[in-house]
Fold this protein.
Amino acid sequence: MTALVLGLLLFLGLHSSRIVAESARSRFIAQRGPRAWRGLYSLGSALGLVLIIWGYGLARHQSAALWSPPAWTRPLAAALMLVSFVLLAATYVPGNGIKARVGHPMLLSVTVWAAAHVLANPTAADLLLFGAFLLWAVFCFRKARARDRAEGRRPQPGRLSATVTAMAVGFGVWCATLLWLHRWLFGASPLS
């Protein structure tokens, strides 16, 4: 599980830099420029993601089950993933009401995704991977909302058409994932 842990530390650490190391991040950008920061951030994130995928692939086959999830956790996780995909789509569809209302739909999407997977996956590797993302997303969401309040940001009203678009895109991706994409990418059906 060493590769998984290193990947999580690198990926989530870099994705937390604005929250836990804003002054160091700002100094780096001031000294070397925003392109150098984006390059370092992208390279480190990619390396962290590769380590997470590789480490999880190794660890999930060697991890013992910590509990036996009840049968209802899989359909519940699938339903929660619909919410997660709608929130994810709301991150990218401009002017939608979901983003206007929650402010940081990507972080909420990761929170719901991670919680759904913690519910339905019982191994130590699952708990480490999804639990780390869950704790990170909750922490980052709280900090981002506090920063919004401190900076006086107010939500702007969203357009109904954009909100419906975000919901439709999220629903479409959820259906594709449920029916075949999850099995194709990860070798497991969410409902079996």
Q: What stands out?
A: DSSP finds nine helices and no strands in the chain. Residues 1-59 form one domain. The first helix runs from residue 2 to 14. The two ends are 26 Å apart (CA to CA).
